[in-house]
Write a structure and sequence with these properties.
alpha+beta; Alpha-Beta Plaits; 6 helices; EC 5.1.3.32; Rham/fucose_mutarotase
Length: 122
């Protein structure tokens, strides 16, 4: 499983509209995201329009390819294009991927069974 995080910039003047449209995403788009293999998908929006997205998938390339070929996703992205800062292309394909630098569960899994520093913390 791969964790994917990305960022986009929503036009700060259009935040209310962005929130409104995402309050009721088209059912066919929701199904298309699911069919692409994305799970645990969330979007977070800062007051200045910085949008951070996160999802998990078994194959980022297969997920991206599925949505790139989807007529439903193309219609959704066209309907959303006016809300983003940038060249007006498909936001899902223009997003900046972020490198993961820390994941608690991964580091906990790598810990030895007993902590050699356990007595030093008391």
């Amino acid at each position: 499983m791969t964790r994917v995080c990305f960022q986009l910039q929503v036009d700060p003047e259009r935040l209310d509209e962005y929130r409104r449209r995402h309050a009721a995403v088209w059912p066919e788009m929701l199904r298309e995201i699911e069919a692409s293999g994305r799970r645990n998908y969330s979007l977070f929006l800062r007051p200045d329009g910085l949008l951070i997205g996160y999802y998990e998938t078994d194959s980022p390339a297969a997920s991206d390819n599925h949505l790139a070929a989807s007529a439903v996703a193309a219609r959704w992205e066209r309907s959303m294009a006016d809300l983003f800062v940038g060249d007006g292309g498909r936001a899902d394909q223009a997003a900046t991927a972020l490198d993961e630098v820390f994941h608690l569960a991964d580091q906990l899994a790598d810990l030895p069974e007993t902590d050699p520093c356990e007595g030093e913390r008391a």
